[in-house]
Every structure is written in structure tokens, then in C-alpha cells.
Amino acid sequence: MERERIIYILEYLSHYTDCNRAATLKQIKAYLENHTNLGKVSLPSIRRDIASLISAGNHIEIERGAHNIHYYRMQSSGFTFNEIRFFVDSVSFNQFLTADQKQRLFHKFEGICSQTEARKLIAHIKMSEVTPPSLDLLDNLDSVYQILEAKRKINFAYGKYNEKRHFVYTKKKRDLTPCSVVYYGGRFYLKCINGMDGKIRTYRVDRMREITMEEPVEILPQLPKAQGAVVDIFEPEYYEVVKLRVNQHLLDDMLEKLGKYAYLRPDFTDDTYVIIHAKIGISYGFYRWLLKYGDTVEVLSPPKIRKEIAEIVQHMAKMYQNEISLKNSLKEKL
Description:
Elements: H1 2-16, H2 25-35, H3 43-55, E1 60-64, E2 70-74, H4 81-92, H5 99-111, H6 115-124, H7 137-150, E3 152-161, E4 167-171, E5 176-184, E6 187-194, E7 200-204, E8 208-216, E9 238-247, H8 251-258, E10 262-266, E11 273-282, H9 284-291, E12 297-301, H10 303-319, H11 321-333
Antiparallel strand pairs: 1-2, 3-4, 3-8, 5-6, 6-7, 9-11, 9-12, 10-11
């Protein structure tokens, strides 16, 4: 009975008190007698149980008020309410969790809040309606983390869409040593070393299935430290100092992407542009990232990258050559 009483007292303080709301011994007594099967409870017993909870490491604050009345409140669970709400928002907009998975997580977040905070929390919850129901990211992440902790190689079936919009999984023998899980662009990726060629391979965790733990390895390999800005999830082939002429309205976007590796100065020929020097990891993803800005970004150097950009743009122009020729022909007739 004593153990049950302590649990009920802890539950009451956790859910009905917080930094702005406290409870007296009489309020706790009324709760225990009216909402549990304990029957009559004495005030000294409650006071003694609270002392035991404090001795066990629970952060319960005691404040003396008027007429020598003591007020009890449970201090922070380790997270502020704003921090918990941030976690809830992150879960709410995660595209890989099903509605049921999100709801289970929300209930757990509510459990570390007071009743007042939980009501505020629920009011802010928005459920995503675009969740793919077949994905189980949490289970996949758990399997991957277990394999990393056990220092084992990994194998799995990996899924991709085919031309018929079907998601097809391919299972084959992979000689992969996992390095780490990376969160990038709203997705979780697993970085591995391919035992066949020693190169880094990158896989989306949500596209894995039938994850299995393979033979042990002595030491998990470390990913090479970035030597410059990396604009894509895939590993750069090499790093290069790139000089860019950038429209001013892209400055925020560029500095957020290139970070500490970017150095800029005004473009003395046109005050609507700036010149940026940055050491950047070069890969196919780099060209794809740069080309999305169209004519608002120009590569000035090195010549090799400028030439490769020009060749890509020329190839793209050839794809639309008929439309360009037709437009010029209509202009001539007019």
C-alpha cells in the first residue's frame, strides 16, 4: 500500500503541478482519497512519502506560504515546455511517421508535462496527411543503431521506384560496414564503406527492408572530415575553391549553405551582385545545386568548373533548340 501511495503522489505532482502551480498536502490528500483505491490517507504519511521521493532524486520543490502552509511542486523534467513543443512540432511534420506512430509519441510527450502544459501541447499538434503508410522509419533506425553499437557489417533490401511507379526492393549480398546515420534535408541516411572498393555509399534509411546484422568488425570506420562546404548528401569527389558571382537576393541562401567556408566582397561592376569565394565539395550534386539558381549565379572560376557548367547549359539548350528556332522565326515574320 505504501509503495502504491508513493507512486500516486509522484503521478499527481507530475501532472498537476509545475513552475507556476503548486499543491498543498490537503489537496494531495483529497486527490488520493477521491481518485485512488487507497482509502483514508494521513497528512504525515504524505509528507513522509514526499521526503522519500526527494531522497530518491525527484526534483520536488517545497515552498512555505502564509499560515505555515507548505506548497509542493514538481520541478522541470529536464526539458522546458518550449523544448517539448519543439520536439512535438518536429514529429508532427515528419513525413516518414504514420499517424499512429505520431500519436504514440505525442502521448509520451504528454507524460512528461503537467496537465496544464499537456493541454497547450495538444492545441498545437498538427497531423500530416501525406505520410506513406508503408514506411516504418523508427524500426529501421533502431535496427541500424543496434548494428552500429554491435560493430557489425550490415545488409538489407533496398527500394526504388520503377517506371510503373511501383516501389521495388532489391536484396543482394552487400559488403557494407556502417559508419553513421546522417540527417539531411528532412531524411535519415546511412553512410557505409563498401568493402569491394573502399568507397563511401549512402542509403536512405526509410527505403531499407529486411535489415540484417552481418559479421563483426574490429573498428567502425570514421567518415572523412569535410574540407569545405558540402551542398549534397553524397560525398564530394574533391574540394575546390570556387568563385561565384551571385545576385544579392540569394545572399542569405548562399551564406546558410556555404557557412564558414564563404568569403564575399561587393561586385564593383554591378551593385546588385556580390562575389563569393568558397571552398566547396565538387560532385554531380554540386552542379545540380548550382544550376537551380539559373542566371542569378555565375561561376567565374576555376576554368574547369566554369567549362563544365557551360557544357551542361549547352546540352540543355539543344534539348529545346526547336522551340528557340520557332520563336526566332515568329519574331522575324512579325
